[in-house]
Design goal:
The chain is an all-alpha fold and 67 residues long. The chain has four helices and no strands. The longest helix has 32 residues. The protein is elongated. It is found in: Membrane.
Length: 67
């Protein structure tokens, strides 16, 4: 998925269900200068999404241990 975020940043957003963000990223990606910021944006967004899932999993596990 990280390779997809770097090579086709807009598609990375589309696959994750962020359609409007994907369209904005595609517009940015169309320009040659905008390709690098679009790829960085997609990679950071992917890492943040993974971190959010890990945190949610940890919170659920902690709540289950309290019971």
């Amino acid at each position: 998925m990280m390779l997809l975020a770097i090579l086709l940043p807009f598609l990375s957003f589309m696959i994750r269900g962020k359609i409007l963000t994907g369209i904005i990223c595609l517009i940015l990606q169309i320009t040659v200068i905008g390709w690098l910021p679009a790829a960085i944006w997609a990679a950071l967004s992917l890492n943040n999404a993974r971190a959010d899932r890990r945190n949610d999993k940890l919170i659920r596990a902690m709540r289950e241990n309290q019971r």
